[in-house]
TrEMBL record, chains A, B:
Pfam families: FAD-oxidase_C, FAD_binding_4. Keywords: FAD, Flavoprotein, Oxidoreductase. It comes from Dongia soli. InterPro entries: FAD-bd_oxidored_4_C, FAD-bd_PCMH, FAD-bd_PCMH-like_sf, FAD-bd_PCMH_sub1, FAD-bd_PCMH_sub2, FAD-linked_Oxase-like_C, FAD-oxidored/transferase_4, Oxid_FAD_bind_N. Belongs to the FAD-binding oxidoreductase/transferase type 4 family. Its cofactor is FAD. The lineage of its organism: Bacteria, Pseudomonadati, Pseudomonadota, Alphaproteobacteria, Rhodospirillales. This is FAD-binding oxidoreductase.
């Protein structure tokens, strides 16, 4: 059946279809390194029409389709199975249009985030989503996973930038939702369904994105907070300061010490203090100085350093970016969770205690986009008595169990994909899961779009579960 | 059948159900004044459980349910039919919680917008959605219609403030989506489905809303633009200025003259100029002065006045708020449309020309939240040779037809409800309508929730329309 589908695809799409040994390995797995798997074929369409043809044929043959972008995902969302067909959007990269009056940019799904940023800059504007994988990740994938990144505290997630979409549905129908207005309440806002749905409801082919003005003068400052309450107070002061807060990154003591140690950098602020906050702000420096002085006088922070040059700012950011070295220096078990901002400090302490109780000497590092309620936590599996799959699973169960108990999310910005499916119930009620499956059933009744991602259960109508 | 339903509701919910003559007239129609109609009964639940019970019973009896909030809608979305049951959320007003660390507020659906604003202010924060009906409109209705208002240019629409929701589904199931984090990618973001769905997919009972910092020093300025290109350039300058643009309202010549005339106000800037822009900005006044000088030197604006006091600012806003007098001074046919910002000027001219070609002497006024791509247009039916339903319909057809041709939306912020159903196809493709009906079918297969609103067609599964 699936072999017939490949033949039909080749007959219709010719060179856009690669099969067998001709499939490049990059289509086998994503940045998680999840067990690589060669799909039956990979389709690399160069137009919306080709995507539509591909979906129509796969739908007719009931053949599973795995949409793929830059393969930089961290949840296994784009990993194929051996009986599926990968649909790579990498060649869907036509002309980009910038409308400077409306402040919008129209991009094809296969365009990299970096190219999108450059297109905006060339027009004197800015696409404000930014993340480490900018050079490889693609706009379609960013939208399908509702990517976050560094500047969410000011600009929101990818969802907040999307004004319009073009989507190919499971059966090949093309949905034109290419709205370019800020306000549009003409019926259901259908684009919202596809943003963050990880390729399970439709294939995103084009988007209208909102642009921000170019960034003015920014200041980078590193503060040492006396405790987590101090972090929260500083956040509130900066938010209400009239300055624009572009980033509010927090590093716990161990993370900071480890990072400075790795880079052999003299710590710009003493190591051994409880918490470090790295902020990026746009606006008047005198106002920033005033806030730092006040925050110090109120004993919320004990020290602060404002970067005096771009080079110094880069040095400060380098401390936070030590995460890039995790894979080479640790055996990292990474978490991407979110919790109400006020309880993150206490939660981090509780997790630390639970980990050490069960695995004495367990090494962990806490850091994150705290201004967005997003905590990252990395456990070094090398510090466990036994580093095996069972230990990984036990640690995940412990962390996600505690996240669920406190009303947090097991996925702040990376999605669920394959890797977090089993833990989804910690953040999602049974009723919500029922509705998700019903939506999936409504849009993809044959379940051919990225099956097995997000949830293990089959799509089914709600009435059947009443 | 429906009478049985009322009896069942009375048996379960007692005093929360009013029927026959006991139903207050406010439940008969909304702010449009659409033909009032007494529903079979009105249910006024005081808890989510009561809403759930009400929906379960109505679902069992297949009885239509019309959710109602403050009845301030402008599209007929809350108008009942004689065989339906109105479900008013007006008594669902429990305690409000503000989390100052997270910057969130938890509100019940029946809380007025004004009470929500006050609760935020009491905590030193701000709920940034604002609109004329603030004293009567309710949070549940605001969310169900994705309300816009004055500050969208900075803070976005109601959708952008909603972090979490509690929703009662058509069959009475309660969906707990009370997320309070900025980032949460754990499965589909189900709350998005209900925002702006005008009560056709579920009944909103509670919400977690995002708060903004309290507003700092603001400046109100009225500018005269030399042409529409000047308006667009001014908008771009202000957006990129480092000042925070809270409002960017444009008034065309006729609107401005009419308003100053009605209030017997000496025009703060000469009447007879092409366009007037009323802005509200937060930030340094010197920076604002610099931009105004530059904009004048570049001949984008010809004159400007900055309010020197709160009283002067109120005077300037009064010019824009002349719309409140439309019902008493005109026979207004109102439009709430959106278009890409760059083409609004040319569109307004084209509409004006078309109207005058067909109805010589036709009086119209153009104004709107141009910073959000939202144009309001009012035609005075008194200026038509014949002011009857056919003329209204002809004018609507003309305007919406042109909106559709230019890729605009027939509803920027008021929704579709009853009044715009027939014109929905101008802004929504057949495929989109199919998907909307499929979503409706998935969540409300019996079609009991606000039937006949948004679209006339029945909910139906997509596969049935393949």
């Amino acid at each position: 059946m699936s072999e017939d589908c490949v033949s039909a695809l080749q007959a219709s799409l010719g060179a856009a279809v690669l099969s067998g040994d001709a499939i490049p390995e990059r289509h086998y797995s994503d940045a998680t390194g999840h067990a690589p798997c060669r799909p039956l074929a990979v389709i690399r369409p160069i137009s919306t029409e080709q995507v539509s043809t591909a979906m129509r044929l796969c739908h007719a043959h009931r053949c599973p389709v795995i949409p793929q972008g830059g393969m930089t995902g961290l949840a296994g969302g784009a990993v194929p199975t051996s009986n599926s067909i990968a649909l790579s959007l990498e060649r869907l990269t036509g002309a980009t249009e910038v409308d400077t009056a409306a402040g919008t940019l129209t991009a094809w799904a296969g365009m990299t985030l970096e190219a999108t940023q450059h297109a905006a800059e060339s027009a004197g504007l800015r696409y404000p989503v930014d993340l480490g994988a900018r050079g490889s990740c693609q706009i379609g994938g960013n939208i399908a996973t509702n990517a976050g990144g560094h500047a969410v505290v000011r600009h929101g997630m990818t969802r907040d930038q999307v004004l319009g979409l073009e989507v190919v549905l499971a059966d090949g129908r093309v949905l034109n939702l290419m709205n370019s207005m800020i306000k549009n309440n003409a019926g259901y806002d259908l684009k919202q369904h596809f943003i963050g749905s990880e390729g399970t409801l439709g294939v995103i082919t084009r988007a209208v994105l909102r642009l921000a003005p170019a960034l003015g003068d920014t200041h980078t400052v590193l503060c040492a907070a006396v405790d987590y309450a101090g972090v929260v107070k500083l956040l509130r002061r900066l938010r209400g300061s009239g300055l624009s807060l572009e980033a509010f990154e927090v590093m716990w003591q161990d993370f900071y010490a480890m990072s400075c140690n790795w880079s052999a950098m003299a710590p710009p602020l003493d190591a051994g203090l409880p918490l470090y906050v790295l902020c990026e702000l746009e606006g008047d420096e005198s106002r920033l100085q005033g806030i730092l002085e006040l925050s110090m006088a109120e004993r919320e922070i004990s020290d602060a350093v404002v970067a005096g040059s771009k080079a110094q700012a880069r040095q400060l950011w380098k401390i936070r970016e030590a995460t890039a070295e995790f894979p080479s220096r640790l055996a990292p078990i990474n978490f991407d969770i979110s919790l109400p901002i006020g309880i993150i400090g206490e939660f981090a302490a509780a997790i630390c205690e639970s980990l050490n109780e069960r695995w004495p000497g367990c090494r962990s590092a806490f850091f994150g986009h705290i201004g967005d309620s997003n905590l990252h936590l990395t456990v070094d599996a090398n510090s466990l008595p036994v580093n095996d799959a069972a230990a990984h699973h036990a640690i995940e169960s412990l962390v996600y169990g505690l996240v669920g108990k406190r009303g947090g999310s097991i996925s702040a910005e990376h999605g669920i994909g394959l890797l977090k499916r089993e833990f989804l119930r910690h953040s999602v009620t049974d009723e919500s899961l029922t509705v998700m499956r019903a939506i999936k059933h409504a849009l993809d009744p044959r379940g051919i779009l990225n099956p097995g991602k997000i949830f293990t259960s089959e799509p089914i109508a709600m009435s059947a579960l009443a």
